[in-house]
Amino acid sequence: MSLIVVGTMAFDAIETPFGKSDRIIGGAATYIAWSASNFCRPIKQISVVGYDFPQEEMDQLTNRGVQLEGVQIKKDEKSFFWSGRYHMDMNTRDTLETQLNALATFEPVVPDSYQDCEFLMLGNLVPAVQLSVIDQLKNRPKLVVMDTMNFWMETALEDLKKVLKKVDVLMVNDSEARELSHEFSLVKAARKIMSMGPKFLIIKKGEHGALLFHEDQVFFAPALPLEDVFDPTGAGDTFAGGFIGHIAHTKDISFENMKTAIIIGSAMASFCVEKFGTERLKEIKKDDIDKRLIQFRELVNFDIELV
Ligand code: AMP
């Protein structure tokens, strides 16, 4: 099984109503790799960092089965930096600062050893970079999944639309789905977005779960009600990692299996928010994941008699 993950590897500074972090390790591809590697290895990472990205973090990823041949290190630039502040509901946030740094001039090169990968996860980053990776692959993967965010809808919409035409699954949150489609109803938004290219659409709704759309079908996965949410940063990427990790592990790209994959994504995301940054993801073991999946099953399992 083989999976390419593309995305940012970054520094983040996060403020929540309950606390504040210093510059900590983040980035879409970092979270995806930590999450997906529970289900599928090796992971072939494509990203860019600056001189300031700690070697120790790279080594931890390598030990985890994440190959870094496709990660460029720009010796005279800083790593991508993002800072954000969460509102009281912890579902919405404002971006305070986005410094592209090394990402601004990033031209990805897909190493030969990454060719023939069956699955491609395009984490959130510059749409032109996502497109370049798709175009460099000699054989189209079995499934191409893409994440993106409002920042790129506002700064690179035309490129974003080009990528949409080439992907199978798009993941966005509810406000991004509305922004992209200019529709308030998520059902109408889904129809419109699927007409732009992706055959499957996942709309993430933070603590209210996630919806999976395909043709006229729709499936809902809840989020686990948690007593404490410390930091939602990376929850979407961790969700993506669980989703694609399960798909790459099972090699089954049916709607039915995607239902399981979004439950696994939701379970992984529920760990991510329990501590700041990637801390919790680094601690969890298979047993923790299994127990949480059982909690998910119990959360939505009920009997009903038709009257
Ligand atoms: P999430 O909370 O899942 O949306 O992802 C948060 C992560 O996305 C953080 O670790 C950031 O470093 C990263 N991030 C924030 N803005 C961007 C952006 N414009 N492009 C790529 N990655 C970003």
**What would the average pLDDT be, to the nearest integer?**
96
Q: Would you list the SSEs in sequence order as H and E?
A: EEEEHEHEEEEHEHHEHHEEEHHHH
Strand order of the largest sheet: 6-5-1-9-10-11-12-13-14
> Which of globular, elongated, flat, extended, rod-shaped describes the shape?
globular
Strand content: 15-25%
Flag low-confidence runs.
Answer: none
Please count the helical segments: 11
- Number-wise, the strands total 14
**Hetero groups bound?**
adenosine monophosphate
- Distance between the amino and carboxyl termini: 47 Å
Structural class: alpha/beta
Please outline the major beta sheet: 9 strands, mixed
Helical proportion, percent range? 25-40%
The value of Rg in angstroms is 18 Å
Structure description:
The chain is α/β, with parallel strands linked by helices and 307 residues long. The chain is 37% helix and 25% strand. It is built from 11 helices and 14 strands. It has a 9-stranded mixed beta sheet with strand order 6-5-1-9-10-11-12-13-14, with helices on both faces. Strands 2, 3, 4, 7 and 8 form a 5-stranded mixed beta sheet that branches. A hairpin with a 6-residue loop joins strand 7 and strand 8. It is globular, with a radius of gyration of 18 Å. The model has no long low-confidence stretch (mean pLDDT 96). The site of adenosine monophosphate has 17 residues, from strand 2 and helix 8.
